[in-house]
Amino acid sequence: MILRMITPVMIIQAMIIMPAIITMMIIGMTSIAVTTITTAIPMLMTTSKPARPRRRAVARADSVNEDAARTPDSRSGMRESEAAALYRLMTWLSPSFPVGAFSYSSGIEWAVEAGDICDAASLRSWLISMLADGPGFCDGVFLAHAHRAASSLDQAGLREIAELAAAFVPSRERYLETSAQGRAFIDIARAAWNCDGLDRLVSCCDGVIVYPVAVGLVSAAHAIPLAPTLHAFLHALTSNWISAGARLVPLGQTDSQRVLALLEPIVVSTGKRALEASLDDLGSATFRADLASMRHETQYTRLFRS
To answer: What are the φ and ψ backbone dihedral angles of 235, each rounded to 5 degrees?
Structure first.
């Protein structure tokens, strides 16, 4: 019925009207698109422009850069001066620093031949006494007092400490050991790590500078704090003793590390005592170790110089 109602006239009218409607729709869509593009162009141009730096932000950045050397780095957690101090301590007290520490055993060679040291457990017991009641504690006290005297530029006090430390050595071989290492440490520090005031501190000692005094003097000249210097020194001393024992017993690397790990609390407590001790607190009760260093002088076969 609907198809029958459509007449030829109606078809002709539709053909005339439809193009006009289509044209109007295209124009409307075009105008909408143009309007959208026209509106978007300023937005795109605005967001693509680089933001101008604000003077306040620049000033703040400059302030941060100036304070970088004085404040800890958020990534490393260390100030620049602390990183430098750690670098020097790790270098000076590493086994590769050429003071000849590997050629001395502090009497351990005779103790091994005599049967006093025969395994990891006996080495640990021997070194506990050496650290807490013998040369470990005494060397720590001398290092601490030498560091304080050098830091305060007390030349007379530094000379007296150097003389006392040299006179405190119990045997000829131990004197050779500590004086040779002290001389080598000073020579290398002056040649490769010299700094203002170091030569003056060395010259005021006017005599033999034993190893702990040399370490205290040089670290003070470089403004390295006393506490980490002392603990690094005691760690290096203990490591060298364990290295000698490992070669003489002999011990494996794992056993050597176990001994070093077990001695950690002894090293820490000895360092704390040495920091708090006066020169009147000096004293040694390691008679067997002192005898070992004396008898090593006449030992028939020897790998070490002490």
So the answer is: -65, -45
CA of 34: how far to CAs of 31, 38, 47, 177, in Å?
A: 5, 6, 20, 93
Strands of 26-73 (E only): list them.
none
- Mean pLDDT in runs of 10 for the chain (306 residues)? 48 50 44 42 40 46 46 68 94 94 95 97 98 97 98 96 96 96 97 95 94 98 97 98 97 97 98 98 94 92 91
Identify which of 233, 238, 235 has the alpha carbon closest to the alpha carbon of residue 140.
233
Is pTM beyond 0.70? Reply is yes
Cα–Cα distance between 170 and 106 in angstroms, integer?
11
**Considering only CA atoms, which of 260, 263, 265 is closest in space to residue 243?**
260
Query: Do 245 and 117 form a contact (C-beta atoms < 8 A)?
Result: yes
**Domain 82-297 -> CATH class:** mainly alpha
270 burial type by CB count under 10 A (0-12 exposed, 13-18 middle, 19+ buried): buried
Q: How far is CA 164 from CA 110, 143, 170, 205, 282, in A?
A: 27, 12, 12, 11, 11
Determine the length of the chain.
306
In angstroms, the CA 92 to CA 217 distance is: 13
Query: Hey, what are 172's tokens?
Result: 């000829």
Whose CA is closest to 135, among 285, 305, 304, 295?
285
Task: Give the largest CA-CA distance in the chain.
Answer: 138
Cα–Cα distance measured from residue 178 to residue 183, given in angstroms and rounded to the nearest whole number:
9
The closest of 302, 246, 273 to 132, measured between CA atoms, is: 273
